[in-house]
Amino acid sequence: MDWPALGVSLRLAALTSLLLIPLGLWLGRTLALARFRARPLCEALVALPLVMPPTVLGFYLMQGFGREAPFGAFWASLTGTTLNFTFSGILLASLVANLPFAVQPIQRAFEGIPGNLREAAWCCGLSPWQTLWRIELPLAWPGLVSALALTFAHTLGEFGVILMVGGAIDGETRTLAIAIYDRVQAFDEQGAALMSAMLLLVSFVTIGVVYGLSGRSRRRHGR
């Protein structure tokens, strides 16, 4: 087992989930409730990482993180370092690549809440903020947990985007998925099998959590 690579993967997955869930909550709820002409375009932009090849997304992010690019130059002026081949770079890349996994389950959860519940809450004197915390979030909780599980698991197994932006620097950008690839290249099938089994187990547990919450939500609503 490549423990430093596992540590990088876990730290990356935890930080990506921690940063994306609040953003996913805001953006998912906005897309679920708001009615504006540009909504399909916004939804398409959120979903774009799902259909783009990871190496293509990684290439564009790598270009955007370079010192010659506006964002990369801005980052360099603030920190004095570049984003490419750093943990900060793969973290930003992971936020972009995993955005749909955080937003879409939350959006679907809020879309499933009947609008008359919000109206009833307002008629009872609850403010929009109180309605969110006391009515909407408890009902959308399965979507939040699904978003957290999917974001964490997908980040843990991300390969193409991370490799393009961060390379494979030990203790910095070399994740468990990259370590598996390196073990295969070195003909260490036993080591690759052990690490692959760990990622397979995480993926299986994640899918089990998602489907379990979905089934519980359907039973609760009598579907």
TrEMBL record:
Entry annotated with the keyword Ligase: no
Stretches that traverse the bilayer: 12-32, 44-62, 74-99, 139-157, 192-213
Gene3D superfamilies recorded: MetI-like
UniProt cross-references to InterPro entries, sorted A to Z: MetI-like (IPR000515), MetI-like_sf (IPR035906), ModB_ABC (IPR011867)
Keyword Membrane applies: yes
Record's GO cellular component terms: plasma membrane
Entry GO MF terms: molybdate ion transmembrane transporter activity
Broad class of the protein's primary localization: membrane
Family the entry assigns: Belongs to the binding-protein-dependent transport system permease family. CysTW subfamily.
Function: Part of the binding-protein-dependent transport system for molybdenum; probably responsible for the translocation of the substrate across the membrane.
Protein's name according to its UniProt entry: Molybdenum transport system permease
Organism: Halomonas stenophila
